[in-house]
Structures are given as structure tokens and as C-alpha cells.
Design brief:
CATH superfamily of the largest domain: Type I PLP-dependent aspartate aminotransferase-like (Major domain)
Low-confidence stretches: 402-412
Bound molecules: pyridoxal-5'-phosphate
CATH architecture of the largest domain: 3-Layer(aba) Sandwich
Helix content: 25-40%
Number of strands: 17
Distance between the termini: 32 Å
Number of helices: 11
Order of helices and strands: EEEHHHEHEHEHEEEHEEEHHEEHEEEH
Radius of gyration: 22 Å
Strand content: 15-25%
Number of domains: 2
Mean pLDDT: 95
CATH class of the largest domain: Alpha Beta
CATH topology of the largest domain: Aspartate Aminotransferase, domain 2
Largest sheet: 7 strands, mixed
Strand order of the largest sheet: 4-12-11-10-7-5-6
Shape: globular
Length: 412
């Protein structure tokens, strides 16, 4: 044990290593060890580590204009908003710096709309196991176990329903309900997908009861699920959407989007020092322009298929429970609560480590760069098989699985 990080306020246990460099799908630590990264800043680095697109956007914008104040227009703010509106079913955009901040903005917008048009209705229905961020109010909005009373008194006005159970939503509605907030694929909960029928019923129910349908696409948006936005997969149009993570490609950037009819803040109702700052907006514009192209999104879907097939082979070979996910947001369900141990084994593999995430005791989440190569996917599957060998040894080797092929990657 070293005393690494002893000046930091304790928030999480970190491995005893310091990362100093990242390129594409690879991270390098201080000792020069390389890691194939399937965490990517928690589904943030859509284009991988240190992509040229971001370096260029940062450099040229930093030399031109960093922050004139949120009370003035700037070009990147206008261009990014225009691009997001063109890509989506929404008309209006508010730029922010984190997912929690965008979601707080969504709840404020819903309450404002409730005070103007619904006689003060203000309650927001969320979902069990949902995750919307770590501010006090978003902890209340989230359905993570143990969070409802971690920092009492917690903000009120949030009810909970069960994902894929439309009756539970109906039961949670009161005369004070103003909105339903949902992750179409619950990320932190372990990549749990909302059923298409449920989402269509939810859209109909919220419209009928005059409730806003607000989708939290902080994790699913900007190409992660193989489309610009996950709501497209469901054939519905939400009223409000939030984005963060992938939209910045690694830098702090978030967005709240709504249809014109819900553009109901009065000047002064909402804001923030960094809202719409040109430095981050320029990066967001560069990332969105790169990711939300048809060819790129088609590539994401193909890579997702390759990864899913490889994971299915691993499920068979190692006797695991299941593989699931949408696009490049995927999970492996283990038969035992040893996900943390697999994460450690994977990281400690030599000479190349593999970085994984375990949001649940029995579940691994995989969130590679959207631009990961086929060869890197195969290499990740090979390393994953090795990392599982200790806790879940091979029970059956299927013929011709991509990860059993000899190593054929050349590292620059
Ligand atoms: C990560 C996440 C958030 C919180 O975003 P921050 O940028 O960490 O505040 C909110 N909602 C979802 C679905 C997320 O995955």
C-alpha cells in the first residue's frame, strides 16, 4: 500500500496506479503498462481517448474565445443547439456541464410548466433502480437502493414506479404529478432495457394525463445505442430529453432539450456560469458531427453485433447467465457475485490489462469507445476470457469463436 491520493477527500476506492496517457481504446499508466479500456470514462469518451477531433476543437476555440459569459451569445453555443435540434424531435436547447445539472433543469422545467398550466402540479415519477445523478434532488429522483435517505432531509416531490410495469406508473400518478422521467436503457441498474410496448403505453398514458415524458439519455444518447438517440429505437417522441456523457466525448458538457410548447422558463429562471460556454460547446459540436453521421452510426451497430456475438460465446464457454444490451452499452450477467473480482483480475492481467466496470455484484458493464476497432473488440474478448478463467473457468469451448484466434493485433 502506498499513500497515493491521501490529499483527496475520500469518495471511492481506486486501484493503486496512476493513468498518464490515453489514445483511442488504450490507456497507459505511469509504469508504462497498457490497458484496453471498456470503461471509457463511464461511457463518456465516445471517440476514445484524446481523439484528434477534440484536440483540434479545443485548441482552436481556446485561442479564439473561452468564455464571454452565459449572458451573451457565442457561435459554438448557437451552432451546437442548431445541430441538436436538426438531429432530434426537439426545438429548444439549454447547455449545461453535467448530467445531474441537465436533469435538475428538466425537473425545474417540468415544475415551471406545472405551475403555469397544471395548477401547480410538481411531482415527478421516476423508476426503481433508475439513476439521474448525484445532486441532492437527483438522488431523490434516482431509485438507487440506499439513496432515498443518505443525506436527510432529501428533496421531496419524487415518486417511483417499476420499469416495464405500466400499472405501477398509473398507480403512482396523483393530481400533483407533472412528469415521468425515464432511462430507456437503465445503465447503472445493469443495462436494463425498457420494453417497446411499455414505452409506447407510457407515451400514450403521459399524453392522456397531460404529463411530460422526459427521457434521460445521458448514457444512451449520441450514438451509444447505435442511433443518435435511443428514443428513435422506440418510435416515440418524448417531450423533454437530457444528454451528457457522450456528447462531450470526455469533457464536461450536457444538454436539456424540449419541444417549443414546453419552452416555459422566464428570463432568470435557469442558468449557470458555464452554461453554453464556447470551449465545451465547440467540442460538443465536433463530437456530434463525427458521431451522428449515418456511416458512423451504421459502424456502431456492426461493432455492437460483433461484441454481442463474442460475449454470447463467452456466456456459453464460461457457463455465465446472459449477455444483454443495446448498441455498445452491454452487460454480462455472472452466476455469482464476483464481478468486482473479475474487474480486478482483468485489470491485473499481464502484459496487457483490460478495464471493465461492475455496477452490480453479479454484473459487468461494457462501454467501449464507439470507434473501437474490430481487432480491439476481439482482443477485449480474449482478455475477458482470461480474466474470467479464475472465477468462471471454461466449461465448453465453442468452435471458431473470434476470441480463441491467436493474437493478431499490432500495437503502435
Ligand atoms: C451518468 C448519468 C447521470 C449523471 O451524469 P453526471 O454527468 O455524472 O452528473 C445521469 N443520468 C444517467 C442515465 C447517467 O448515466
Amino acid at each position: 500500500m502506498t499513500d497515493l491520493g491521501h490529499h483527496l477527500i475520500t469518495i471511492i476506492r481506486r486501484p493503486e496506479t496512476v493513468f498518464v496517457e490515453g489514445h483511442g481504446s488504450w490507456l497507459v499508466d505511469e509504469r508504462g503498462k497498457r490497458y484496453l479500456d471498456l470503461v471509457q470514462g463511464w461511457a463518456v469518451n465516445s471517440l476514445g481517448h484524446s481523439p484528434e477531433v477534440i484536440a483540434k476543437a479545443l485548441e482552436s476555440q481556446a485561442r479564439r474565445l473561452v468564455n464571454p459569459s452565459p449572458a451573451f451569445y457565442n457561435r459554438p453555443m448557437l451552432e451546437l443547439s442548431e445541430r441538436l435540434v436538426a438531429l432530434s424531435c426537439f426545438d429548444r436547447v439549454f447547455l449545461a456541464s453535467s448530467g445531474a445539472e441537465a436533469n435538475e433543469g428538466a425537473v425545474k422545467l417540468a415544475r415551471r410548466w406545472g405551475s403555469k398550466t397544471r395548477g401547480g402540479a410538481h411531482e415527478v415519477i421516476g423508476f426503481e433502480d433508475g439513476f439521474h445523478g448525484r445532486t441532492l434532488a437527483m438522488m431523490s429522483a434516482s431509485g438507487k437502493s440506499g439513496w432515498s435517505n443518505l443525506y436527510p432531509p432529501m428533496p421531496g416531490g419524487f415518486a417511483k414506479a417499476r420499469l416495464n410495469d405500466i400499472r405501477s406508473v398509473e398507480r403512482a400518478i396523483t393530481p400533483q404529478t407533472v412528469a415521468v422521467m425515464i432511462e430507456l436503457v437503465q445503465g447503472e441498474a445493469g443495462v436494463q432495457q425498457a420494453d417497446p410496448d411499455f414505452v409506447r403505453e407510457l407515451r400514450a398514458l403521459t399524453a392522456e394525463r397531460q404529463l411530460l415524458l422526459m427521457v434521460d439519455e445521458v448514457q444512451t444518447g449520441i450514438g451509444r445505442c447505435g442511433r443518435a438517440f435511443a428514443y428513435e429505437l422506440y418510435g416515440i417522441e418524448p417531450d423533454v430529453m437530457t444528454l451528457a456523457k457522450g456528447i462531450g466525448g470526455g469533457v464536461p458538457l450536457a444538454a436539456l432539450l424540449c419541444k417549443d410548447q414546453f419552452n416555459c422558463f422566464e428570463p432568470g429562471d435557469q442558468g449557470g456560469t458555464y452554461c453554453g460556454n464556447p470551449l465545451m460547446a465547440a467540442v460538443g459540436l465536433a463530437v456530434v458531427n463525427e458521431v451522428c453521421r449515418d456511416e458512423f452510426l451504421e459502424g456502431v451497430r456492426q461493432r455492437a453485433q460483433r461484441l454481442a456475438r463474442g460475449l454470447q460465446a463467452i456466456v456459453r464457454d464460461h457457463g455465465l447467465v446472459a449477455e444483454r444490451g443495446v448498441g455498445l452499452l452491454r452487460a454480462l450477467v455472472l452466476p455469482t457475485d464476483e464481478a468486482d473480482r473479475v474487474v480486478t483480475m482483468a485489470r491485473e492481467l499481464e502484459p496487457l490489462g483490460l478495464l471493465l466496470n461492475a455496477p452490480r455484484p453479479n454484473l459487468l458493464r461494457l462501454m467501449p469507445a464507439l470507434a473501437i476497432s474490430d481487432a480491439e473488440i476481439d482482443e477485449a474478448l480474449r482478455l475477458l476470457g482470461m480474466a474470467l478463467q479464475d472465477t468462471h473457468p471454461i466449461v465448453f469451448e465453442s468452435p471458431g469463436r473470434p476470441c480463441s484466434a491467436p493474437e493478431r493485433l499490432h500495437f503502435a
